[in-house]
Design brief:
The protein has 386 residues and is of the alpha+beta class. It contains nine helices and 20 strands. Bound molecules: fe (ii) ion (FE2). Fe (ii) ion (FE2) binds next to strand 15.
Length: 386
């Protein structure tokens, strides 16, 4: 008997040690006052007013704590809130997809589109987000004299959102960066690791996100703080070298290998290197090529850079994969963000999407450095006329 008790005690102790080391000390998802305050601060930047009608757009796989925090914060601010919750659709992709920004939850359901057109603000708590959803342009046209704005809350644990509550000063910086991108003809990206990439910006469509949206028709997401361009077809050529510490956000993984990517006429034509990161990239792309019969998933989606000093490159280290969506890493100041996948400007459509934030790159716009060795050039966006 004693023997059994000892065994149980020992087993129990091992179990405890095992659970702690495997992350049972993980962050708990529940309503916390500090997170309510973070949501209220962010919604105040979105200029939520008493009696504004706000739709929470959610799906069955949404992170409920964020939905609840949003609802409570909006009610606290006097808004009239309702929730549209859709079932998360069956998978259609040949491989898992992450952070495409192109949710298919609405399935073009007319009553849902009609409801969303008529609210002042849509809080987007879908897993993938509405940024590139096919219904968004119609929704943002509004109806009955109302034009909504859409604010996507990235599928992150609330602690990540708390750390990245938007700074109002980011709006001016991002607007200036967008202005510079719009007026530039050419982006040249280099790095000590061997990146040498030429991007023609003529006819590119420029976007930017500062983390809140206060005006009808606007779209933003939290965390925010980046500027980017969707290049026109045939605009990108050269070599992109991912070095250890660069990130593949579809895999939610810091790469440990060096990956040489040859890009010809927008498309990755060669992946060179040794190691599991190289193999994983090859196999994921191959899944899309096999399913779709073309290489659109390997072609450039968007290029840009992070502008948010509060966003951390190393943040992903601190969270379990289920706790984060990685939007913070898209925004850390001085990154070069290269992405492959859908690019409407170039006429390419696919759900295969990589966001690849890279460190230590230098970015020049028409010969003027805006990022040098992974650091934003001081004053380059602050000083431009807004
Ligand atoms: Fe992306």
């Amino acid at each position: 008997m004693k023997f059994h008790i000892n065994l149980l005690e020992e087993f129990g102790a091992h179990l405890l040690i095992g659970l702690v080391s495997q992350g049972v000390e993980m962050l708990i998802e529940q309503i916390e006052h500090r997170w309510l305050l973070a949501f209220e601060r962010t919604f105040a930047l979105c200029k939520v007013q008493p009696n504004e009608v706000v739709a929470l757009l959610t799906e069955s796989q949404s992170r409920r704590v964020n939905v609840d925090l949003a609802r409570l914060a909006l009610q606290q601010m006097g808004a009239k809130v309702f929730e549209v919750c859709l079932p998360t659709p069956a998978l259609s992709a040949p491989a898992p997809i992450r952070s495409t920004g192109a949710t298919d939850v609405i399935q073009n359901l007319a009553p849902v589109v009609a409801a969303l057109q008529r609210v002042h603000l849509i809080i987007d708590c879908t897993v993938e987000g509405m940024l590139h959803a096919p219904e968004l342009p119609t929704i943002l046209k509004g109806a009955d004299g109302v034009v909504p704005r859409l604010f996507m809350i990235s599928n992150e644990h609330p602690e990540i959102l708390e750390r990245t509550v938007p700074d109002p000063a980011l709006e001016g910086v991002v607007r200036n960066a967008m202005k510079k991108l719009r007026s530039a003809q050419h982006m040249h990206v280099t790095s000590k690791a061997g990146t040498d990439l030429n991007i023609q910006l003529k006819s590119a469509v420029v976007g930017g996100v500062w983390g809140f949206c206060s005006k009808p028709g606007m779209v933003s997401h939290w965390p925010g703080g980046l500027a980017l361009a969707f290049p026109a077809a045939g605009s990108v050529n050269g070599t992109l070298v991912m070095a250890p510490g660069d990130v593949n956000l579809t895999f939610k993984r810091y790469v440990r290998d060096t990956i040489h990517l040859t890009i010809e006429n927008d498309t990755i034509t060669r992946i060179q290197g040794e190691g599991v990161d190289v193999d994983m990239m090859r196999s994921y792309y191959q899944a899309w090529i096999d399913k779709e019969g073309h290489r659109d998933a390997c072609a450039v989606s968007h290029v840009g850079f992070g502008l948010n000093p509060a966003a951390r490159w190393d943040a992903m280290t601190f969270y379990d994969k289920r706790d984060c969506n990685g939007t913070e890493l898209r925004a850390f100041a001085g990154n070069f963000l290269y992405s492959t996948g859908a690019n409407e400007v170039a006429g390419r459509h696919t759900l295969g999407h990589f966001d690849l934030p890279m460190r230590n790159c230098s970015i020049a716009l028409d010969g003027q450095f805006v990022v040098q060795a992974g650091e934003l050039v001081k004053g380059v966006f602050e000083s431009a006329a807004s």
